[in-house]
Amino acid sequence: MQRRSLLALPLAAALPEARAGAQVEEPLADAVRTALAAAIGDGRPPKPQFFELDARLAYLRWLGGTSEKLKRYKSEHATRVEFLETVWYESKRAGLETSLVLGLIQVESAFRKYAISPVGARGYMQVMPFWSRLIGDGEPARLFHMQTNLRFGCVILRHYLDRERGDLFMALGRYNGSRGRAEYPNMVFGARQRWDLKAPR
Fold it and tell me: Which of these, 52, 130, 134, 186, has the minimum number of CB atoms within 10 Å of its CB?
């Protein structure tokens, strides 16, 4: 990291670096910006609710199995469960596969909450700070908050998926700032397989 960067971000040296790319700041139509801001601003707590016993049991099986796989990244049980509950909630809320979101997080930050990429992307899902200005409250430091980061990341990926008319390969490339190149989407698809435990829909 260059000296100028260290002066601008004195705490950055203490934070783990990620190898993610960068979402590109693009103009947003007012309606899109409003919709994304509303999606980010919904403050409901990330607690799953089930109206059928089978769905509840499937979720608990998924939570237990995925928690075991996540141990190598997060050793503390309560932290793992809180993280997985939030990933499940935010991915379902955005209409995304939970295994895809976990695969993306593995590739982007290796499940490090305070990861910072060389281009300044932050947190678990490596969200670029400009998003906090475009659709958030203008405070990029909040992108290190777990639920905030996961919500931003899922909403942004959903936005890119909509823009690419359901083409996940292109949406992932856009998320990473490498649209049209195969390396990043293929890494996420590979990581997704690790987390595909038949999560409840």
Answer: 52
The 10s digit of each residue's pLDDT in 39-51 is 677 666 667 788 8
- Closest C-alpha among 180, 176, 178, 164 to residue 104: 176
Residue 165 inside a domain? The answer is yes
CA distances from 75 to 84, 86, 88 (A): 13, 17, 19
Long-range contacts of 166-175 (CB under 8 A, 24+ apart): 168/100, 172/104, 174/23, 174/24, 175/23, 175/104
pTM score? 0.81
Range of the structural domain that residue 76 is part of: 46-195
Residue 5 placed within a domain: no
Q: Could you tell me if 130 and 138 are in contact, meaning their C-beta atoms sit under 8 angstroms apart?
A: no
- Whether residue 59 is contained in a domain is answered as yes
Q: Are the C-beta atoms of 91 and 105 separated by less than 8 Å?
A: no
